Amino acid sequence: MESLLLPTLAGAGVMTGAATQRATGLGFALVAAPFLVLVLGARTGVALVNLLSAVLCAIVLLRTWRALEWRRMAWLTVPGLAAVPAGIAVIGALPEPLLLVLVGTLAVGAMLLVQCGEQAATLHGRSGAVTAGAMSGFMNVTAGLGGPMITVHALSEGWDMRRFVATAQAHLLVINCVSVAAKGLPPIGFRELSAATVLVLAGAAAGEWLTSRVDPLLIRRLMIAVALLGGLAAVLRGVLTW
C-alpha cells in the first residue's frame, strides 16, 4: 500500500505546488518538497525539488519578467548565493533521518513564518533583504525552500504583488540553478524525471487557468493545509527511521 500511496501523494504534491506557484508566485517547494523527500529520501528529494523549481521558475518568469525589479533581486540573490556553501556543509554532515526531520521542520516553520509574516514585519529595508536572501539560499539548498523568507521580506515591505512574483521567480531561478550545480542532478531514472516534469507543466497550466477563476485565498488555504501535512509526515518518518 505504501509503495503506491507515497508516489501518488508525491505526484499530487508536485502538480498542486506547480499550480499554486503559477497562481500566487510561490508554493511549489512548500507543497512538493515534503512529499518528494518521503518517497526519494532527503538528499535526492531536495535535489529534485531544486531542479523542478528551476524549471517552474523559468516558466513563470517568461510570463512575468516585465515586472522584474533587478536591484531588489540583486540584494536578495547575492547573499543567497553566499549562503549556499553553508547549506552544502549541513547536507554533508547530517545523516538521512536527521535530514528528513530538518526538511519537514523547515517546511512547517516556513509556512508558519509566511502566515505571521505580515504581522511580524521584521525584514525591512536592505538589511532585511540581505537577511531574507541569505536564509533563502541556505534553506533552498538544504530543504528546497527558498521562497518563504522572500515572502516574509515582501510582506514586511508591502511589496506590490505583481513585481514580487516576477522578482521572486528570478531570484529562485538563480538560487536553484546554483544548488543543482553544487549538488549535481538527482540520481533518478529518465522515466521518473520525465514524469515529474510533465506534472510540473500540467500544474503550471492548471495554475494559469485557476488564476482568473478561483479565489486566491482558497488556493492559499489549500497550499497551507497540504504543506503542513507533508512537513509533519516528513518529520514523523525521520523520527521513526532515526
Write up what this structure looks like.
By secondary structure, this protein is mainly alpha-helical. It has one domain (about 1-240). The protein contains ten helices and no strands. Helix 1 (about 1-25) packs antiparallel against helix 10, helix 2 runs antiparallel to helix 3 (about 40-65) and helix 3 (about 40-65) packs across helix 9 (about 190-210). The radius of gyration is 16 Å and the shape is globular.
The count of β-strands is 0
Any idea how many domains?
Answer: 1
Strand content: under 5%
> Helix-strand pattern, N to C?
HHHHHHHHHH
Low-pLDDT windows of residues: none
What is the averaged pLDDT score? 82
What is the 3D form? globular
Give a quick account of the main beta sheet: strands, pairing sense, barrel closure: none
Number of helices: 10
The secondary-structure class comes to mainly alpha
End-to-end C-alpha gap: 22 Å
What is this structure, in a nutshell?
The chain is mainly alpha-helical and 242 residues long. The protein has one domain (2-241). The protein has helices spanning 2-24, 28-40, 42-64, 70-93, 96-120, 125-143, 147-157, 161-183, 190-211, 216-241.
